[in-house]
Write a structure and sequence with these properties.
Number of helices: 5
Strand content: 15-25%
Oligomer: single chain
Largest sheet: 7 strands, mixed
Shape: elongated
Distance between the termini: 124 Å
């Protein structure tokens, strides 16, 4: 009979686990209450446990069985790293699947708040994950199982596609209805939203005034740009003239210096 243990490490409670009865070395899981400022419906504050150091071979079902000792578990999910929201994992049976490889973090959601409080006070025994009643597949057996489950049933796939397209059509229909409601309605600045369903776009007095002011400002800015361009050209030409004059002066100075150093024996 294993002795009950309560181990704390930097605010995390610890559970010693073993893969099966033959394993002599244990593996520690670290968990604490999941507490964030902005709670997500998939990870409600007060009902969710945050678990660290979950090995690749531990399944959601095995983790659920372990923490069910404290109360009914609504859901168990794994993620690659901690997050406040739920990642896009297993949204459908065929698409957007994101299987976490390697060590991961886990979130255990209880149905009742009292279950989480009980889990935070429990003294856990050493738990065996892979038993004769519920074995965890590994190695060749796991690869065969994953290969067999990779085959897709055409009927299920077609049903999934039909449901997705139905939701897509409903969403597009709602968007079109919202656009029709906005059509012909000016906003605070007098602008009217033009959609693909609009036959014409009427201009209000405020809108006409804004367009005219914008056009005047464009003409004014254009004149200033031309003026500054002319100034820049004049400055460049003047600078080039000064460089040429300096070059001629330097040539004369060099010639004078050479003549002064010329050898004269008589």
């Amino acid at each position: 009979m294993e002795t009950e243990k309560l181990i704390l490490v930097q605010g995390f409670r610890c559970i010693e686990t073993r893969f099966n009865e033959k394993c002599k070395a244990g593996h520690m899981l670290f968990y604490k209450e999941h507490a964030v400022r902005n709670s997500h419906p998939s990870k409600p504050v007060g009902k969710t446990l945050f678990i660290l150091n979950v090995p690749p071979y531990y399944t959601e079902e095995s983790v659920k069985q372990l923490f069910s000792k404290a109360g009914f578990v609504s859901s168990v999910s794994f993620e690659e790293k901690p997050s406040g929201t739920k990642e896009m994992t297993n949204i459908t049976s065929f698409f957007f699947q994101n299987h976490v490889k390697g060590f991961k973090v886990g979130y255990v959601v209880y149905k009742e708040i009292s279950s989480l409080k009980k889990a935070m006070k429990m003294k856990w025994q050493t738990n065996i994950f892979s038993t004769n009643d519920s074995p965890i597949k590994t190695g060749l057996e796991k690869w065969i199982s994953e290969y067999e489950s990779s085959f897709i049933d055409p009927k299920e796939l077609q049903s999934e596609i039909d449901n997705y397209m139905k939701e897509f059509d409903d969403r597009k229909k709602r968007e079109e209805e919202e656009e029709k409601l906005k059509e012909g309605q000016p906003d605070n600045d007098g602008w009217i939203t033009v959609t693909k369903h609009s036959k014409h776009a009427a201009r209000t007095e405020t809108m006409e005034k804004k367009v005219m002011e914008k056009e005047k400002q464009k003409q004014k800015d254009k004149k200033l740009i031309n003026f500054y361009s002319f100034q820049m050209r004049e400055t460049k030409m003047e600078h080039l003239t000064q460089l040429r004059r300096k070059f001629e002066d330097d040539k004369k100075r060099i010639a004078t210096m050479r003549a002064a150093r010329k050898f004269k024996p008589y």
